[in-house]
Amino acid sequence: MRILILFIGIFFCQFTFSQTDKPNLLYKKAYECITNKNYENSIQLLTKAIQLDSLGNCGTGVNGKAHNELGYAYMQIQNYELSRNFFDKSIELNARNPDPRMNKVTSYILEKELEKAKTELETFIKELPGYPMAYWQKGSILENEGKNNEALLEYRKARAFDRNLNLLPKPIVDKINEKLKNN
To answer: What is the mean pLDDT of residues 18-43?
Structure first.
């Protein structure tokens, strides 16, 4: 009887582990597909991972991470509306993660929906103030619209916030510094 109970216990533990480990493996494979620009396969893998882990954590420690990656994959194949659905779900699951917010803004920019991108940036900045990439992105949109003085204000904010966080890539920092130096 003890052997039977031990066997059932081991089987149950292995089954439970395999069920919790599978979303993580699917996520890792999907991320590799995204890295290799194999978006169709990543979409299938992430969809399966989310079916097994509805919080979209998939072993990353960040709720909504898989939803954000799924949205990114859809954005790359230019299915912007569907991508934004997954970015919204990711934001709902983890409102403090800036990645789905930036990706959602990017999807609007790629669709040339600059007013919607600006509106989304305003919401982003209101809910997560101090994230330098949002200010840089807003400055870029304003500059494209010929609103150079407003753009410079946003670039200054991006640089000021980035001094503490160091999130902006060096080429962006260099661009901001060049724009501010010339004005």
So the answer is: 89
